[in-house]
């Protein structure tokens, strides 16, 4: 199967129909729209739960666990967001699909370690939701390397990326990163800190670019510095993107997705050209 997302995602590979997805939505209109669109685009049949009791039954009495849940914030029987807390407690990865959204709502949602959220505010909302579903179910294709001399920073990024279903490796130094790249040629994205004791982010990027082009490996630099010139220097060294800490969660995920989308398109185009030759 193949899938083109609203924001530029492209997936081509095995069918996703084997994944069990629970949809917690009391609106007949939205549950019908989501069910139809996921079937059309991804060949996925969803299990619709119209209230909190239905949701609990579907999660706890399934023959195999749900790969993902899509949930409104408020359901009948769970008018104060209890459904989201329940799904997280049951270790079910969850995408929030909601029409109620304010700054306080965003903070509450993100505090629950959800996968993503999609707002019901445009004609593209259901397609954006389908793309978010497809990303989560297929992100395991991507191997991401985190390079940072801070154990805390490595742990935070690892947790965040695993929440999105990426495979991850981590290195505490530039030298260790170079060794991991030799051992794992499937690494497609590296996120590296700038300030490291042995090889800084600039030098690490230069060394990597001597052997790995941007069609093989995307590189995102990160830093806590307020020096605005770091981004220019990093891009000049061969990096593809740059972010300043602390990250905004949504921006971080979008930057990661955009770089991996670009890599996928380049590699797909290259494979087509090889077949034609």
Shape: globular
Mean pLDDT: 93
Seen as an oligomer or otherwise, the chain set is single chain
Query: Distance between the terminal alpha carbons, to the nearest Å?
Result: 24 Å
Q: What's the alpha carbon Rg, rounded to whole Å?
A: 20 Å
Helicity level, as a percent range? 40-55%
Count of distinct strands: 12
* Helix-strand string: EEEHEHEHEHEHEHEHEHEHEH
Strand residue percentage: 15-25%
The parts where pLDDT drops under 50 for at least 5 residues are: none
Total helical segments:
10
Q: Looking across the biggest beta sheet, what order are the strands in?
A: 4-3-5-6-7
- What profile does the largest beta sheet have? 5 strands, parallel
The secondary-structure class comes to: alpha/beta
Organism: Rhizobium herbae
Protein name: Response regulator
Domain Response regulatory: 20-135, 143-260
Modified residues (4-aspartylphosphate): 193
Notes on the structure:
By secondary structure, the protein is an alpha/beta fold. The protein has ten helices and twelve strands. It has helices at residues 28-42, 52-60, 82-89, 103-110, 125-138, 151-163, 174-183, 201-209, 229-236, 249-276, and strands spanning 2-4, 10-12, 21-24, 46-49, 68-71, 94-98, 116-119, 143-147, 167-171, 187-193, 218-223, 241-244. Strands 4-3-5-6-7 form a five-stranded parallel sheet, with helices on both faces. A hairpin with a 5-residue loop joins strand 1 and strand 2. Helix 1 packs across helix 5 and helix 2 (52-60) runs parallel beside helix 3 (82-89). The mean pLDDT is 93. Keywords: Phosphoprotein, Transcription, Transcription regulation. Residues 20-135, 143-260 form the Response regulatory domain. The modification 4-aspartylphosphate is found at residue 193. It holds the Pfam family Response_reg.
């Amino acid at each position: 199967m193949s899938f083109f997302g609203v924001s530029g995602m492209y997936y081509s590979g095995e069918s996703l129909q084997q994944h069990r997805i629970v949809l917690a939505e009391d609106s007949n209109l939205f549950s019908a729209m989501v069910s139809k669109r996921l079937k059309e685009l991804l060949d996925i049949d969803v299990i619709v739960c119209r209230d909190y009791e239905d949701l609990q039954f579907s999660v706890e009495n399934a023959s195999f666990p749900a790969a993902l849940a899509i949930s409104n914030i408020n359901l009948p029987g769970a008018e104060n967001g209890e459904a989201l807390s329940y799904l997280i407690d049951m270790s079910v990865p969850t995408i929030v699909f909601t029409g109620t959204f304010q700054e306080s709502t965003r903070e509450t949602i993100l505090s629950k370690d959800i996968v993503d959220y999609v707002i019901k505010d445009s004609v593209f909302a259901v397609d954006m939701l389908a793309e978010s579903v497809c990303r989560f179910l297929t992100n395991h294709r991507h191997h991401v390397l985190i390079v940072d001399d801070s154990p805390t920073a490595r742990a935070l990024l690892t947790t965040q990326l695993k929440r999105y279903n990426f495979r991850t490796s981590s290195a505490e130094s530039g030298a260790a990163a170079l060794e991991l790249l030799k051992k794992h040629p499937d690494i497609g994205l590296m996120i590296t800190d700038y300030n490291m004791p042995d090889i800084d982010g600039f030098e690490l990027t230069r060394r990597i670019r001597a052997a790995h082009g941007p069609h093989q490996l995307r590189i995102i630099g990160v830093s806590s510095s307020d020096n605005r010139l770091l981004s220019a220097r990093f891009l000049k060294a061969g990096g593809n993107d740059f972010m300043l800490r602390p990250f905004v969660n949504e921006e971080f995920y979008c930057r990661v997705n955009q770089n991996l989308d670009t890599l996928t398109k380049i590699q797909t185009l290259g494979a087509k050209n090889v077949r034609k030759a």
